[in-house]
Amino acid sequence: MANESILNKLDLIAEKTSSIIDENKKLKQQNGEANLLIKKLKKINEVQKNSLEILEQKNKLTNIASIVSTLSDEDKIGLKKTLSIQIKEIDKCLKLLKN
Questions:
Q1: Which of 18, 25, 60, 71 has a CB 3.0–4.6 Å from the CB of 75, allowing a cystine?
Q2: d(CA 47, CA 43)
Q3: For residue range 9-50, what is the model confidence (pLDDT) as tens digits?
Q4: Residue 43 to residues 37, 46, 91: CA-CA distances in angstroms?
Q5: φ and ψ at 70, to 5 degrees?
Q6: Measured distance CA(75)–CA(92) in Å, rounded
């Protein structure tokens, strides 16, 4: 009788162990799938960030173009001179930083 009770307890322990092992396998699989999904979503997020940055730059350029198109010829010439001077200054600064 005592042996039978011990055997029943051992059978229950074996069943629970098997159940836990099965659940562990399922959870590992779900974890792997979740990690793959996270990687895919991170890639999508990065692409969307890059697209947003590109659109923001295009929007800025469009705004600048609309402003420039309303300027008089004299103002456009003055703006070109100012931009040329600033570009030269930036080039000088970059040369200094390289040295």
A1: 71
A2: 6
A3: 999 999 999 999 999 999 999 999 999 999 999 999 999 999
A4: 10, 5, 35
A5: -90, -5
A6: 26
Q: Which helix or strand (DSSP H or E) is residue 14 part of?
A: helix 2-69
For 48-72, how does the pLDDT look when each residue is reduced to its tens digit (9 = 90+)?
999 999 999 999 989 888 888 888 8
SS (HEC) of 46-66: HHHHHHHHHHHHHHHHHHHHH
Largest CA distance in the chain: 110
- Distance from C-alpha of 38 to C-alpha of 45, rounded to nearest angstrom: 10
Residue whose token pair is 């600033």: 86
Q: How many other C-beta atoms lie within 10 A of the C-beta of residue 1?
A: 5
CA distances (Å), 94 to each of 21, 23, 35, 47, 59, in order?
Answer: 62, 60, 43, 30, 27
Cα separation, 50 vs 45, in Å, equals 9
